[in-house]
Structure of Zn-dependent hydrolase:
Amino acid sequence: MLFRQLFEPVSSTYTYLLGCEETGDAILIDPVLPTWQRDLELVNQLGLTLRFTLDTHIHADHITSARALKREAGSRIAHPAVDALTCTDVPIAEGTPFAVGTLRIEPLFTPGHTDGHHAYRIGNQVLTGDALLIDACGRTDFLSGDATALYHSVMGKLFTLPDETLVYPGHDYEGRWISSIAQEKTRNPRLGGQRSLASFVELMDGLDLAYPKFIDYAVPGNRECGVCPAGVPEHLSQYCDQIAESRQG
């Protein structure tokens, strides 16, 4: 498997490129609108063909580039079926592995950050989206967030994976790239150390986080699989415009 972890600096989002070396088929997971050209150039440089894009959930802090990549590369849009997006080409659900060439992606239904959130397991790796971050987790205080649901998703789905499973998060704001299930079970300040459900819910309810600055544009845009809505203020235009530079790993 060809695997690349890519960073988008405006929203501090990680995009993941997975490629099948046997067939040349590729998928981008959680692609971001400002970096779609960079991502597609990398796909081409590696001699791959982009067959699919796939998001972990309906994002509130950035807009997916699924629609742009479908237009430019002919890729199909895969998305969790529970969100019932009319623009989805391939609905994804837990219990039904998703194949990209010879690669096997196992969807894990992990609601709590949103009610449709999925993580994706590929062998000894798991792409956790916003359900589980490095030393953190996604917030649960807007839209369909639910702290109790997130606790059960992490404890019952993610923390039951083998300790050596590598954790690749949807975001990181501190320059970190990778963790493991063992590490997060041990030291995650929000969910590690056998924290109780009551303690976790109290913690999440008390975070008092600021209202997401791009949510009113991101959510409707993502319900259309990547449309930047009209009326985005100039100070938020970077979320829609192609950026000149982006760190890549």
Q: What stands out?
A: The radius of gyration is 17 Å. Residues 147-158 form the longest helix (12 residues).
